[in-house]
TrEMBL record:
Source organism per UniProt: Neotamlana sedimentorum
Organism domain of life: Bacteria
Full protein name: Peptide chain release factor 3
Gene Ontology BP, a term: regulation of translational termination
PROSITE patterns per the UniProt record, alphabetical: G_TR_1, G_TR_2
GO molecular function: GTP binding; GTPase activity; translation release factor activity, codon nonspecific; translation release factor activity, codon specific
Source organism phylogeny: Bacteria, Pseudomonadati, Bacteroidota, Flavobacteriia, Flavobacteriales
Length: 529
């Protein structure tokens, strides 16, 4: 197959949802359609379960699963589909944000009864800011839930999306009879007794057909006719360009558990979802069909076995072909690296591959040279943008609890930060180290891993910080900036890249600082124009 065809047939996406909405179940059903797995239950949930085991064990278990489910790839009707795993747990939101820099589109799963939930809101906002094309799947239609129109409203209001329903439910819960497929213009009936099997479709191409009355009863048929008329009246017709530009989001209804509405979603997805997209680097826009290989690291996974300290760096291929045993330039280190055993991912396994294409993810064995955000090229000096750090929510001093092991501690902190587990800030005033995290759970992860993988011990000490803001002076030589540096010295720190950060202790002091030093811009993310 030609290089261009290989690009055309790839779809790389992520499924985002609030925990429990049905992401794992949907992933599994998609893999079943692709023939990539044979039975339900094969895909493990990456959820953090509380209770049964200690949190530490749970973290390790989760980490094991998350290696296995990082990338799930399969073929469907000639399309190569790469699903990138996105943890739903809020303490791992940063992981998900970073993974979203490597997807070309997303599917948003919403629970019909719960509607739009907190994590969905946050993740969709990130996708919206980046104009990532989104398809919405409203799940669990076999249960009593919210009215379909109310839900569509909620999706528009809370998520700021412009929806175009491509399917519509016929009833719900016990009354759930099936869905009308607006995209394919047919009716697909849900049969309660074959709930566990791949559904059989009964197709009716015309809504006014009396056959519909026979199948679902006159009352339901008439309701459906009215509702579809309403849908067509209220919502715009699906427009592929709008979808691809992030200005419109098609919506599907179904039940992942019962494998209902999933084929419709997949068929439409394969047809409309974007092939690998061009990506902006600091230097220029890079197109996937460029001959020369470029890619970037969006995730790093440490080996769970402390005796094998190597890590797996996940690289998204942006352009060209990635080949085994070929020297590539690690731009940040200005070093050529060769990879003898790059991993490609399949449903449940990884294999060494000779060649990979734009849209694909390769896993590279790494002994510590990669950081999240690093760029690889054939020689061009290129730095991909878009793997920013966000202000953490929690801040604690980290102290060395075993003076004999300070070397191990620093090495451990260094590597865990490269992996993106948390962010390190070093105070300007006294050099003390502060760890910033998205969730409190990360502190346990760090402490546990420092001890088990690096033989180092640490303690934490609370620190009152509200937000970390990256400092961006309009004029670094101005008196105003000099005064800012002097007056705010005890709130200033450097991040791991050496960028200056202002650690504000309250929303109020942040506001006061902004008013007093208007020419010193303060950003909540590390990447700004
Ligand atoms: P995740 O946290 O988003 O990955 O959610 P899971 O896929 O693990 O699903 C959470 C729970 O919802 C599980 O108990 C599933 O069996 C259940 N579930 C998923 N899809 C459906 C559905 O369509 N109908 C019903 N009734 N339950 C579902």
């Amino acid at each position: 197959m030609s290089f261009l065809k290989e690009i055309q047939r790839r779809r790389t996406f992520g499924i985002i949802s609030h925990p429990d909405a049905g992401k794992t179940t949907l992933t599994e059903k998609l893999l079943l359609f692709g023939g990539a797995i044979q039975e339900a239950g094969a895909v493990k949930s990456n959820k953090i379960k509380k209770g049964a085991t200690s949190d530490f064990m749970e973290i390790e278990r989760q980490r094991g699963i998350s290696v296995a489910t990082s990338v799930l790839a399969f073929e469907y009707n000639g399309t190569k589909i790469n699903i990138l795993d996105t943890p739903g747990h809020k303490d791992f939101a940063e992981d998900t944000f970073r993974t979203l820099t490597a997807v070309d589109s997303v599917i948003v799963v919403i629970d019909v009864a719960k509607g739009v939930e907190e994590q969905t809101e946050k993740l969709v906002e990130v996708c919206r800011m980046r104009n990532i094309p989104m398809i919405v799947f409203i799940n669990k239609l076999d249960r009593e839930g919210k009215d379909a129109f109310d839900l569509l409203d909620e999706v528009e209001q809370k998520l700021g999306l412009k929806v175009a329903p491509l399917s519509f439910p016929i009833g719900m819960g016990y009354e759930f009879k099936g869905i009308y497929n607006i995209w394919e213009k047919n009716v697909n009936l849900f049969s309660g007794d074959s709930r566990k099997n791949i559904e059989e479709t009964i197709e009716i191409s015309d809504l006014s057909s009396p056959e519909l009355d026979e199948l679902i009863g006159e009352k339901s048929a008439n309701t459906l006719r009215e509702e579809i008329e309403l849908v067509e009246g209220i919502y715009p017709e699906f427009n592929k360009t709008d979808y691809l530009e992030g200005n419109q989001q098609p919506v599907f209804f179904g039940s992942a558990l019962n494998n209902f509405g999933v084929r419709e979603l997949l068929d439409c997805f394969v047809e409309i979802a974007p092939k690998p997209r061009a990506k902006q680097s600091e230097e220029r826009l890079v197109k996937p069909d460029e001959k020369k290989f470029t890619g970037f690291v969006f995730k790093i996974h440490a080996n769970m076995d402390p005796n094998h300290r190597n890590r797996l760096a996940f690289v998204k291929i942006v352009s060209g072909e990635f080949k085994r045993n070929t020297p590539y330039l690690h731009v940040r280190n200005n070093k050529k690296l060769k990879f003898s055993s790059p991993n490609a991912f399949f449903a449940e396994k990884k294999e060494i591959v000779d060649i990979s294409y734009p849209g694909d993810i390769v896993g590279l064995q790494d002994t510590g040279s990669f950081k999240i955000g690093d760029t690889l090229t054939e020689g061009e000096i290129l730095n991909y943008k878009g793997v920013p750090s966000f202000s953490p929510e929690h801040f604690r001093y980290i102290n060395n609890a075993d003076p004999m092991k300070s070397k191990q501690l620093f090495k451990g902190i260094d590597q865990l930060m490269d992996e993106g587990v948390a962010q390190l800030f070093t105070l300007e005033l006294n050099g003390r180290k502060v760890i910033g995290t998205v969730g409190a759970l990360q502190y346990e992860v760090i402490q546990y891993r420092l001890e088990h993988e690096y033989g180092a011990k640490c303690t934490y000490e609370n620190l009152n910080v509200h937000k970390a803001c990256w400092v961006d002076p309009e004029d670094p030589k101005s008196d105003e900036y000099k005064e800012f540096l002097r007056v705010k010295q005890r709130f200033l720190a450097k991040d791991k890249q050496g960028q200056l950060v202002f650690l504000s202790d309250s929303p109020f002091s942040l506001q006061m600082t902004q008013q007093k030093y208007p020419s010193v811009k303060l950003h909540f993310t590390s990447e700004f124009e």
